[in-house]
Signal recognition particle receptor FtsY
Amino acid sequence: EPQPEKPQAEKPGLIGRLLGRDENTRVVDDAMLESLEELLIQSDMGVETSLKVTANIAEGRMGRRVTTSEIKGALAAEVARIMEPVARPLPLYPQKPQVVLVVGVNGSGKTTTIGKLASQFKAAGKNVVIAAGDTFRAAAVEQLQVWGKRAGVPVLTAAEGSDPASLAFDALTRAQAEGADLLMIDTAGRLQNRADLMEELAKIVRVLRKVDPSAPHNTLLVLDATTGQNALTQVEIFRKIADVSGLVMTKLDGTARGGVLVALADKFGLPIHAIGVGEQIDDLAPFDPEDFAKALVG
Ligand code: GDP
């Protein structure tokens, strides 16, 4: 079965677009640096990060003739340097069960990511339980059940419209009794009523702590990389309403420019635990800063 072509691989990266694909030389001057800055901003790297990265590349090169590969290498190194500290897989703690609260706006890929993570941990020999905490969206619960089946992991549900915190309490109690290693809790993602969502998440956390004072051990924010600068706003909002401990960036397989990851890393420094690279169960990869930098810059 041939794999569908990944458009990203064929498209020139940032420097390809700036200086052409072929090896070339040119003088580093204000015009070139301005074009570079503009490209970085267009790639969703954000103004501040783009200015900083451009300044670092200019350093010691002003007025000098450089090769395309030197600029590519310099930019890739800058990006990798920003990304290295945030490239960290989801830490596994000795606490049993480790409770992972999964937050994010609807459509960001929460359900899919939970399914993929469940499958990975299951394959690693972990005993995983999922709780369908978005009790107000029947479609979300059904979708999670589909993923649970695919991953071979039980999905605990509650009656439509019932209190998510009560489901979280039951789920943790049961996961504890069964000696589960990992409990992943899906949550609602309607930002329309932020105060409600904040209260809902706070209540889930309060109730979890009655069962295990150290829970939740992780609060994963799932972000759709194709939303560009919106992802930055979502981090700001979710950090106010939940104690976000790390990120999963989804939809990095498409034509997403990916620059927003650099802006996120530079601005918030939150770990990127994994990236979504497709809609299938195996399409979750560890975040590799060097590969990412090379693909972005290319
Ligand atoms: P939720 O509303 O946050 O639970 O989002 P879903 O998990 O239902 O995902 C929304 C849509 O995005 C679905 O069509 C998924 O198949 C798709 N999706 C999720 N992750 C990825 C990814 O990494 N790559 C691609 N191409 N699609 C994704």
